[in-house]
Each structure stands twice: as C-alpha cells, then as structure tokens.
Amino acid sequence: MSTDRSNGDDGLLSRWAKRKQAVREAEELEEVQAEAEVEAEADPETEEEAMALLAERDPELAEQISSLDLDNLAYEDDFTVFMQNKVPDIIRRKALSKLWLSHPLLANLDGLNEYDEDYTQAADAAEMVRKAFEAARLREEEAAKKKAKEALASNETPAERQDEPESADADDLVEDDDGDLEA
Fold first, then answer.
1. Are residues 98 and 138 in the same domain?
2. Residue pLDDT, tens place only, 66-78
3. Virtual CA dihedral for 141, 146, 147, 149, nearest 10 degrees?
4. What ranges in 2-44 are assigned the alpha helix state H?
5. If you ran DSSP here, which 8-state letter would residue 9 be given?
6. CA distance linking residue 146 with residue 144, whole number of Å
7. Whole-angstrom Cα distance, residue 133 to residue 130?
8. pLDDT tens, 84-129?
9. Is 88 inside any structural domain?
10. Measuring CA to CA, which residue among 179, 171, 178 is closest to residue 150?
C-alpha cells in the first residue's frame, strides 16, 4: 500500500511542475510573438499609410472613415468612429483636433486646469510671495500714515496750535526702523 516516493520522475509534484513550466514557456512565446507583431506594425507617418493599414485591418471601418472628409468635419458630425482601437493614431488625432476647433466651448480653456501653472520653479514662487508681502506691508504703512494725519488734523484746532509750541504735524512724521511713526 505504500508508494515509493524516491522516484521523482513519476511523482505527482514533478508532473505538476513540468506542466506548470510548459505553460510558462508557452506564455513567454506568445509574449515574444506579440512584441514582434507590434514592432512590425509601426505607426504610420502619413494619413495615406494609415488608411492603407486600416484597409488591411478592417476594410469596412476604412470605408466608413474614407467616406468622411477629415478636413471638413464639423461639431455636429459623429466622431465616435474615430475612437475605435483599430483606427491609427494619426487619423484619430486629426479628427479630434477638428472636433476641438469646431466649437468655441471646446476650443477655449476655462483656466481651471491645475496643470496650467509651472510649479517647478520654487525660487520664482518665493520671490513672488516676497513681492506680494512687501506690497501689502507698504499699503498698510500708507494707511497708518493717512490715519495718523487724520487723527492729528481732527484733534487739533487752529487755536490749540497757537498755544502749543511747535509740535510735529503729520508731514513731519518719520518712520523708524521698526515701521513706527516718530516726530
């Protein structure tokens, strides 16, 4: 009743491993063949080459596309035929460029694209932030000076100015290093 497992060629595990190895080799062979086909089918460089390639792959689709004039496509035309996988990229791109240009809604960007800005230049961004901060600080200082002038003008009347010795009015105020106003 006992089986001799010393013979590795007849064992269940060795047969299973051989089958698995054969499947792997078949898959690798299929991948190599698929890569060779892709390399053999290089993308055509002109529309004529693309249409000839499409006529070889799918004559019905080539006939349908050739019936449409790529140069005179409009927004109302059906562009779904160009989105099939069999259509070469050069023809698809030309059709889509006609679609984008056919309607102002599609042709104009709304400016809400995150990728429109160049975020790779961090030094430029820091400089822009510094300039914006400086402009805001200067506006605040001007507002403080204007407020100080108004306060001096509203608190003093001409009679009060005669009684007091010369005091600093708003025009004589100078700014110290901290940004404070001094007489």
1. no
2. 888 888 888 888 8
3. 130
4. 12-40
5. T
6. 5
7. 5
8. 888 888 888 888 888 888 888 887 777 777 777 777 777 777 888 8
9. yes
10. 171
Same domain for 172 and 133 = yes
Six token digits for residue 10: 């007849």
Residues 134, 27: Cα–Cα separation, whole Å: 66
Confirm if 54 and 88 have CB atoms less than 8 A apart.
yes
Grade residue 160 by pLDDT with cuts at 50, 70 and 90: low
Question: Do residues 152 and 174 lie in contact, with contact meaning Cβ atoms separated by under 8 Å?
Answer: no
Residue 172 lies in a domain: yes
Show the domain range for 101.
47-108
Q: Please write the tens of the pLDDT for every residue from 4-53.
A: 555 545 688 888 999 999 999 999 999 888 776 765 566 777 888 888 88
Q: Is the dihedral of CA 62, 67, 70, 75 positive or negative?
A: negative
Confidence of residue 142 (pLDDT cuts 50, 70, 90): very high
Residue 40 lies in a domain: no
Regarding whether 142 and 100 lie in a shared domain, the answer is: no
Residue 38 domain-assigned (yes or no): no
Residues 103 and 51 in one domain: yes
Q: Are residues 104 and 52 in the same domain?
A: yes
The count of structural domains within the chain is 2
